C-alpha cells in the first residue's frame, strides 16, 4: 500500500532527476550549495522546486544547514544526506567550516559539457572523500504531500552489498565511463537513489511519528489515502470514507488530520488540484475533460476551485514554462 501511494505521488509531482557533480575532495576542504530556488533556474529551468542530496561513495565528511540551525552531522561511506526543502547547506572535511558559493559551477549540461560535472575542492591536499551530488526537480504546488512530510535534512545509511549500496556502485560506474546515453542513465539512477533514501527514512520512523509518510503505515489513514488516490474523481464524503475504512467519521477525521495535517476532504481537494495541474502541464486535454477526471461536473466549477487553490486560472497554469527533459 505504502509503495503504491509513494509511486503515485512521485508520478503526479513529476519527479525528475539528474546527477550533476562527481566531487573528489582533498583535506582540508569545504563547499557550500546555495538555496534550491536560486539553483533551479540554472540547472533545471521550469522546475518548481529543487531537491539536493549527496552520496558518500567513500571517505567521510560533515554536513550542516548553512543558516547554522541544528548540529553538523558526520557522514560515513555509503551514506546519503538529503535536503528536501532546498535549503542552502555546507559540506566540509571538518565541522563548522564555511566557504562561499561558486555560481559558475551550476549550469545546464550540454554536448560540450556533459554529465557528470567534476569538482575538486581542496585540490592539492590529502584525498579524503568522493561524493556524488544529485539534483531533482519536482512540483511543490499545488500540493506535494511527500515534500510537506520531509524534514529540512535527513541521513540514511547504506551497506556494500544491499540495494542502496548497489545503486551507489552503479552510479559511480556510470559517472566514470562516459558511455552513450549516460546522462539519461544518471538521471534515472538519481531518482532511484532518492526514492530509496525516502523509503528508508519512512521505515525508520517510530510508531509515534505523525506525518503523511507515517500515515501511509496507519491501517485507517493509509486506506483512506489509498481510496482517494485510486479514484480522485469519485464524489467522496467523510461518511463514505469512514464506512469504507470501517471506523466512525470522528475517528477517521481525527486520525487523518493528525497524520496528514489537514482533514480528509481538504486533502481530497488538494490532491485533485495536483492531478489537474499535472494534466494541464503534460497533456492537451480540454479543461472539461480534466475537470471530469478530477471530479467536477463543469469546467466553470473546476476553474473556480483551481484558481481558489493556486491563485491562477487553469489556462494561466497551462501556459507556465515547464521543466526541460534531461537528455544529455
SSE blueprint and pairings:
Blueprint: H1 2-12, E1 16-27, E2 30-33, H2 36-43, E3 49-59, E4 61-65, E5 73-75, E6 79-83, E7 89-92, E8 117-119, E9 126-138, H3 145-149, E10 154-157, H4 163-177, H5 182-203, H6 212-216, H7 219-230, H8 238-245, H9 249-260, H10 264-282, H11 287-293, H12 299-310, H13 314-318
Parallel strand pairs: 1-8
Antiparallel strand pairs: 1-9, 2-7, 3-6, 3-9, 4-5, 4-7, 6-10
Helix pairs in contact: 4-5, 7-8, 8-9, 10-12, 11-12
Could you characterize what this model shows?
The protein has 328 residues and is an alpha+beta fold. It folds into two domains: 2-203, Jelly Rolls, CATH 2.60.120; 218-318, Arc Repressor Mutant, subunit A (Orthogonal Bundle), CATH 1.10.10.60. It has 13 helices and ten strands. It has helices at residues 2-12, 36-43, 145-149, 163-177, 182-203, 212-216, 219-230, 238-245, 249-260, 264-282, 287-293, 299-310, 314-318, and strands at residues 16-27, 30-33, 49-59, 61-65, 73-75, 79-83, 89-92, 117-119, 126-138, 154-157. The chain has a six-stranded mixed beta sheet with strand order 8-1-9-3-6-10. It has a four-stranded antiparallel beta sheet with strand order 2-7-4-5, with no helix packed on it. The two termini are 35 Å apart.
